[in-house]
Automatic annotation (TrEMBL):
It comes from Jannaschia seohaensis. Pfam families: adh_short_C2. InterPro entries: KR_dom, NAD(P)-bd_dom_sf, Sc_DH/Rdtase_CS, SDR_fam. This is Glucose 1-dehydrogenase. The lineage of its organism: Bacteria, Pseudomonadati, Pseudomonadota, Alphaproteobacteria, Rhodobacterales. Coiled coil: none annotated. PROSITE patterns: ADH_SHORT. It comes from the Bacteria. Belongs to the short-chain dehydrogenases/reductases (SDR) family. Keywords: Oxidoreductase.
Length: 243
């Protein structure tokens, strides 16, 4: 049987990297990264060892013009595309809304909302029946992240609404679209937002008493992509330990 090809954005660390490593025995992989080439190459090496054919694609998703060329590369590297994990995303430093600047909000919207919509648009031109898209939202879309990341939460809320529209649009074509809401997950994203101990500090406040791991989110993503979820579309799955 022909192996399916999966595109994962932000596959150089955290949830995207864990998803790529867990997917490798079953999927060929188009792995996107931006600044962390070493991380992407380490993931690619592990995935190749697990049997996957792997291509690497660098794109700064803050720039919408980077997206079409990335898909040209993917087309050259793989015969077809069967799935997308729209995962790349950023937080900014924690700040109240009164301190937001035009630059901060524009960057947040570009990477966390404009880019996944345009990546989904390119994917929708290529995916066929049996394919699936998983959009990586956040529990922040439920909480609003007051005093810290209201901009981030707003982009994730927007991504969930987009996910709903896309799911309805593509269902007649046999393409499933879902979103996932990780809670507090141990990845590098917290340090990038200036709070390296965030997952350790907030873990005990979660009903399950701990932060989650990138692998726990990856397993849920892979289930949503799989034929085991063949009647699941237009839904959002919380992977947040009850938070
Ligand atoms: P992470 O380890 O920081 O990974 C983020 C990924 O996004 C990296 O591969 C990074 O690529 C990529 N990225 C960042 N800026 C980019 C840009 N301008 N252009 C292209 N790619 C860019 O974070 P993570 O925790 O795994 O986050 C993955 C997703 O989960 C995000 O959408 C995040 O919002 C969501 N999430 C995370 C948590 C959590 O607690 N960790 C909770 C809820 C939702 P490079 O490093 O190569 O630049």
């Amino acid at each position: 049987m022909t192996r399916k090809t999966l595109l994962i954005t932000g596959a150089s660390s955290g949830i995207g990297a864990a998803t790529a490593r867990l997917a490798a025995p079953d999927y060929d992989l188009a792995l996107h990264y931006n600044g962390n080439r070493a991380g992407a190459e380490a993931v690619a090496s592990d995935a190749r060892s697990a049997g996957a054919r792997v291509s690497l694609h660098r794109a700064d998703l803050a720039d919408p013009a980077s997206i079409a060329p990335m898909f040209d590369e993917i087309d050259a590297a793989h015969p077809a595309l069967h799935g997308l994990v729209n995962n790349a995303g950023v937080v900014d430093v924690a700040a109240p809304v009164a301190e937001f600047t035009p630059e901060r909000v524009a960057r947040m919207v570009a990477i966390n909302l404009t880019a996944p919509m345009l990546v989904a648009a390119q994917s929708a031109r290529r995916l066929g029946p049996g394919a699936a898209i998983v959009n990586v939202s956040s529990a922040a879309a439920r909480f609003g992240s007051p005093g810290q990341y209201a901009d981030y939460a707003a982009t994730k809320g927007g991504l969930e609404v987009f996910s709903k529209g896309l799911a309805q649009e593509l269902a007649p074509k046999g393409i499933r679209v879902t979103a996932i809401r990780p809670g507090i997950i141990e990845t590098e994203i917290h340090a990038k937002g200036g709070l390296p101990d965030r997952a350790a500090r907030l873990g005990p406040t979660v009903p399950m008493g701990r932060a989650g791991t990138a692998e726990e989110v990856a397993r849920a993503i892979l289930w949503l992509l799989s034929d085991s979820a063949s009647y699941v579309t237009d839904t959002v799955l919380d992977v947040s330990g009850g938070r």
